[in-house]
Amino acid sequence: MKLDSRLESPILALHLAALSLALAPPLFFGAVVAPAVFHVLPTRDMAGALQSPILSKLCGLSEASFLVLFATSWLLTREAARGTRAILTRLPVLGFFTALVIRQLLIPPIDRIRAEAPGLIDNLPAADPARILLDRYHRMATGFFALGIGAALVVLLVTARLLTERRAAPAPPVQAKPVPKILDLG
């Protein structure tokens, strides 16, 4: 079933808006906010305490944007090639779950480790189990974060390719309306 041409533009606009929300805030957080906070604040504990709620909100925003991306991709690729449709509908699911894992499974234990650590994490020896576990969770969160950004980047590239293919495709020929026959009374 073909998507109504009047709905295609608003759905595409919503798709691009969701894509920008899935990509821009995580990139800004990872490239600017996180390094700046760790550079400015005197301890990793203080920086982590500030980062945790920001990252939780960012993951919620990412989850919502990936859900919208899934819905709009589903609608926009109804007549696309099977591979394009598979990529544009599966990668938003991957992005959604990366954000969900960070927010639900990694941030709470990180916060718990910081709260239960005997003193500042920075002052613990490198072999301390709490510090080792915190570093492991942090690496996992960073990996899932990068995976979500990667999923959004691939969605961006495939969306661009889909749009260029649509523009390059020839328009269907316009069929002239049949001319009504005039009643011949002669």
Write the layout of secondary structure elements.
Elements: H1 5-40, H2 44-76, H3 82-116, H4 129-168
The profile of the biggest β sheet is: none
Sketch the topology as an H/E string, one letter per element.
Answer: HHHH
**Main structural class:** mainly alpha
Q: State the helicity in percent bands.
A: over 70%
Q: Gyration radius, to the nearest Å?
A: 25 Å
Strand content: under 5%
Which regions contain 5 or more consecutive residues with pLDDT less than 50?
Answer: none
Describe this protein's structure.
The protein is mainly alpha-helical and 186 residues long. It has one domain (7-168). It has 4 helices and no strands. Helix 1 runs antiparallel to helix 4 (129-168). The radius of gyration is 25 Å and the shape is rod-shaped. The protein starts with a helix and ends in an 18-residue tail after the last helix. The relative contact order is 0.13.
